[in-house]
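Chain A, query sequence.
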Amino acid sequence: MAALNNKSQEYCENRDTTRRTLDLVFYGLTIALFAATIVTDLIAVIEHWFDTNKSWAYCTALLILVPSFFLQLLSLKWYQTNGKLKLFQWISHMFHLAVIHRFYFLLNSVLKSMKSKNTLKEKDWIFRLENDAFTLNLFTSLLVAVPQMIFQLYTMAVSQRVTFWTSK
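Chain A, predicted structure.
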């Protein structure tokens, strides 16, 4: 019976390690895609600016920055509520990198938990970090990406031109 319990426990630990490894890949991919989105947003603004559509450039920039500003405030409020608000978080949020910051912190936390035995408290902490990161990412999609995508579709329809950067 003891051998069966050891095999069962070993299987659960291997499964947990495999799942956490996949989580790490997913978190890294999320960071990379969010960074790519920031770059393509900047390219879209610059493209509109140099195509003498300065009003479109302003609208695109506003559709990026205004909702993102409120998401940064929301993320900072969550940190303040948890009692974990530090200077580094203020700096990352000033540059509108709340999602990247949260997923990077989550990535580091999972790496640390993989090196040690996962206690119930650590698993709960990681679950709360995941919840915050994914909720903020969902809000980002709804408040930033959707209005911007609608506006980019409008600009493509009016200008009768589709470029790589504006066709998200």
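The chain is about 85% helix and 0% strand. Residues 102 and 132 are 8 Å apart (CA to CA).
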